[in-house]
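Entry 14. Structure prediction run on the chain below.
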Amino acid sequence: MTPILNALKPDNFLLINDRSRKVINYLSNTKYTEKLTEYPYINLTGHNLILELAEEMQKQNIPAMRDDDLFDMFCHWLVAVKKYNFPSENINSTDNIYETNQDEKINSTSSNKHLHKKFLNPDPAIPKSVFLERSNLKGEYTLTQCSQETNFPETQLTQWIRAINRKKQAIFQGPPGIGKTFLAQKLAEHLTSGGDGFWELIQFHPAYTYEDFIQGIRPQSEDGKLTYPVVPGRFLKFCQKAALCQDTCVLIIDEINRANLSQVFGELMYLLEYRDAKIPLAGSGELFSIPENVRIIGTMNTADRSIALVDHALRRRFAFITLSPNYEILRQYHQEIDTDFLVEGLIKLLEAVNQEINDPNYQVGVSFFLREYIEEEIQDIWQMEIEPYLEEYFFAQPEKVDEFRWDKIKDLISE
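Output returned:
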């Protein structure tokens, strides 16, 4: 029944389900059940509770959402995602709701006072702001662990992390096969560890749009009728989740330069530079700002011709970190797995190939060869991945490709 009432008059009737009922009972110290006769009372209590929380929710810079929709999302997060352990005495459905103080529930003034008192100190497990509930924090992923797994020194990682936190958005750029995405994931794991933060990854492509990333109209069927609501995109959804966290949240945008960035980002171009600002979104007109705890890490393949789409206005808003083939990573990897493969011959060959390419944007990376069974796979890797890449780069100079055909270089690797 409540979904129908809410759909007809969302300002008057709340959507009540098992999750929202648990949260309302807990924060307001009530014992409502799912009986229809109790809906007027839980509806009133819920409205009063949302009024109490509204100011706190606005502090979190939640974008493009009504207070009641945000409260419903919070209830889902606390019950279904965080799986908070509510004290059983607050949700005992066997108690009669009419045996409690009905005058307090019906009188909005006394109810507000009661709710406010409960909200200030609901339980030692939930701090003053329930949105910062931290009972399920992630384990620590230290900088030392990150250094060991990426084979970059801690000093270098520290510098990059400092740049990410200073600018709040950074792009790792370099030729293919140098581990840009892997490094971004490990740094995101480090930045979000030890707290309630999280990280997500999306990949841009030429068909990616503003509607996919920020918000846009999406046709939906409701009761046999076609409607056209404004639906939040991936970035808005990410920000809505991040605003419920206290700690750092990281969005990784893989292949960031493959989309038309000026079109995809829209108003975000302004907000990336002025993080404290709020501006109305083009679709809904609602004010939006990027939560303070959001970090953006992009990866960019410098061998991709679409790099030209990254204009100077966007470059000014990101810290750009250039990566190049790190042969020490290749050396350490094969030393650690203790194979009989003679990695030094491969390193000398890659150095020769990259010297012939003579362009840092198109060098061959080492991640092609970070394989446990490299001895059995290297011929396939070279003939099916490296040679086609060289054929494209030296399209007008086929004689240079011939110098690095498998039949001519296979003996060099074993030296």
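The mean pLDDT is 81.
Filed with the rest of this week's runs.
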